[in-house]
Amino acid sequence: MARIVSLGSALQDIYLIDRDDFVGAKIGAETIFSKVLIGSKIDIDRLSYEVGGGGTNSAVAFARHGHEAIFLGNIGRDSAGEAVLECLDREGIDNTFVNILPRINTGCSVVMLDVKSGERTILTHRGASAEFHNLDENVLDQIHPDWLYVTSLRGDMDTLLRFFEKAKSIGCKIMFNPGKNEIIEQKKLLGLLEDVDILLLNKEEAAQLVPGQVLAELLSHLSNYVPACIITVGSMGAIATDGTDTYRFGIYEDIPVRDTTGAGDAFGAGFLAHFAAGKSFRSSLIFAAANSTSVVNKLGAKRGILTGKEKLHPMPIQKI
After folding, report:
1. Structure pTM?
2. Domain residue spans in the chain?
3. Do residues 103 and 75 make contact, with C-beta atoms less than 8 angstroms apart?
């Protein structure tokens, strides 16, 4: 198994779960929660406290797969930070390199979830997970990871550059799943990709980075920057290439969606968890799809994360 560092955010997710008051209503092309009125007091059915954030979500996927998982990120000195540390301990994730910022709260999200439709609205205070400039890339010299898995750093391109250059200098491979704050820094992001081994984007993000609207065209353009690339299209599946073979596939299984929080993290980290265990590119794509499907069938970003020991059923995947 591999030693994998997850660099990214850690948050506490507080779910407000209700069957009646968070019902969606259409206004033009938009949907709103139709029964939530300003100034009102609303009784909800139940609460659930979870731990989220791309950095911890991916670390859990690696740990459950049997890898040596290390989380690198920031939390505050508060109850939400304690919840993050308890989660890392419970999952067997190394938290040696977690930074505690005493004057900043741990990131926190309030998730308003309609259990009938699976639709949710998330109110997020990034807190300590909006800060990454304090992180020291030289810790990679101590860890000597095989892989660095990076989710969004809120557009902190300088920190990304420092970590990518350090990773490459010690022979560490990089899988990168940027967010919207990195995508808007188009020129800087494209420059960073020369150090990236595997890039994960959704279709909208890919179309903001390179020319094209058709999946195959987007993938072809991105392949000029990275050896391997995966572009997801939500319920329409994904397209991916390892530089030699290209695959097009749909979702793993058509099941009711309970909560889409963490689906992207489950796909990306699920892929690397399988791939870093020595599985083929094609097999890792199937596991990524299965992992994402399992996560959206459960509440929260972590409950459905698979271990890699499950027996997966076949799914349509086409080599093109």
Report:
1. 0.94
2. 3-19+47-319
3. no
